Amino acid sequence: MNSEFYKKLVDLYAGRELPSELEDQMEMAAFNDQELSHDMSTLRRTVDMVHAEPAPEFTEESYQRILIRLYASGIDPQPKSPIPSHFQYQLPIQG
Amino acid sequence: MVSKRAKAGVILSLRASIRSVRSSFPMPNDALRDTLAEKRWLHALSEGDPAALGAIYEIYGERIFRYTFRMLGNRSDAEDATAETFLRVLRRSAELRADGAFRTWLFRIARNLCIDKMRQHKLMELPPDAQYAGAEEQSTLRVTVQQALNDLPVEYREPLIFCDLEEMSAQEAADLLRISVPALKSRLYRGRRALRDKLGSLIERTT
């Protein structure tokens, strides 16, 4: 098999971008090929570990410090709800 | 015969239940409402209303902070870069367009700031914040993944941040980086392989 094509298939397998039938075929092929099996499993594990990486926490302190920096630059951003006021209230149902 | 007062009580409790269900589960039109709200704020900002910056910060502040933190590796610089991103948005508000391109434009501003900061302070040499809590082994694992990510060349790290961590589409990430989708995917796949090589024995142990 062309090595570039082989690498591309493993890349797609690692990112779970292959259709399930092709994924099954890859796993069957890897059963008898230790190098392929190692490449597939380690790369998929890497992708899974990146996906499992927790997001940095946007703390209240960070939120406030950023606002203070904006104020310090002479801007009054007036933090408010992301929803304009006329979207916040619902009129009573008539009838 | 049910009294009027009892009927009113039932109606009130039903309304309260509906309200609580509504607040627990996003309704189908919430996304549309949010998009409309964002467009209105962007329109206000493009007309030079600085008060609208607060609303835009409420909508995008956390995402920009997360991105800058991942690029720069520490909280203080991420806060600086996030604040500067929104200041630039205000300064360049005449260029604003209230369409899907806004998010790409906003992230591009943040990206340029991060790259400038990395060039100025060589931040890639600094250790990341030890911000990950949890079991000791799990925490060590995460710090190691974070460090390995920080050690990657920027051209590999960015596609990983956008596609694998921020879950952007390949098209959006490619637009942001001003490259084609195949070029983005090529960098993403190379980045994953480079990260695996950096993690080395850790991957072997957990496989």
Any overview of this molecule?
The complex is a heterodimer of chains A (95) and B (207). Chain A has helices at 3-14, 20-31, 34-51, 60-72, 85-88. Chain A has 95 residues and is an all-alpha fold. The mean pLDDT of chain A is 83. The termini of chain B are far apart. Chain B is built from 10 helices and no strands. Chain B is elongated. Chain B has 207 residues and is an all-alpha fold. The chains are: A mainly alpha (95), B mainly alpha (207). At the A-B interface, α1, α3 and α4 of A face α2, α3, α4, α6 and α7 of B.
Largest interface, C-beta closer than 8 angstroms, per-chain residues: A-B, 39 and 52 residues
Overall radius of gyration of chain B:
22 Å
Question: What structural category arises from helix and sheet content of chain A?
Answer: mainly alpha
Mean of residue pLDDT of chain B?
Answer: 77
| Oligomeric state | heterodimer
State the end-to-end CA separation of chain A.
Answer: 72 Å
Strand content of chain B: under 5%
According to DSSP, the number of beta strands of chain B is: 0
The percent range for helix content of chain A is: 55-70%
- Listing every helix as H and every strand as E from the N terminus to the C terminus, the arrangement of chain B reads HHHHHHHHHH
Number of contiguous helices of chain B: 10
Question: What general outline of chain B do the C-alpha atoms trace?
Answer: elongated
Largest sheet of chain A: none
Taking all Cα atoms into account, the compactness measure Rg of chain A is 26 Å
Element pattern of chain A in H and E: HHHHH
Structural class of chain B: mainly alpha
Global morphology of chain A = elongated
**Hey, roughly how much beta strand do the residues of chain A contain?**
under 5%
Distance from first to last alpha carbon of chain B: 69 Å
Report the sheet with the most strands of chain B, covering strand number, pairing sense and barrel closure: none
Task: Give the tags.
heterodimer, A: 95 residues, mainly alpha, 5 helices, 62% helix, B: 207 residues, 10 helices, elongated
